[in-house]
Design a protein that fits this description.
Number of helices: 3
Number of strands: 3
Radius of gyration: 20 Å
């Protein structure tokens, strides 16, 4: 799934996917975009059913990791050095890593 940038202009929405190997732009009304979104969801659910797999659910925001104690300790030191909690530090580091994919 790619991140996208978009702008709202009254009842028009303009968007572009980033990063992309080719540029894809769109200009749709809110009603058109809403219908296209519903069609995409219906298509996705039908495709999942035909393939015999469960649809992907949104992430809850909770993540349990099992890591070596020395990695845990190093992460605690790094978070303290950054002046943040381990949770805030890990969220920032994971977000940076995810953007590089």
């Amino acid at each position: 799934m790619r991140r996208g940038d978009g702008e709202f202009f009254d009842t028009l929405i303009s968007g572009q996917t980033t990063p992309a190997k080719a540029t894809a732009a769109l200009m749709l009304t809110v009603a058109e975009l809403t219908q296209d979104f519903r069609n995409a969801i219906d298509f996705y659910l039908k495709e999942c059913e035909e393939a015999g797999r469960a649809p992907t659910k949104p992430a809850s925001g909770k993540l349990m990791l099992r890591i070596p104690p020395e990695v845990h300790g190093a992460a605690l030191v790094a978070a303290q050095a950054a002046g943040t909690s381990l949770n805030q530090w890990a969220a920032r580091v994971l977000a940076q890593a995810a953007r590089q994919v």
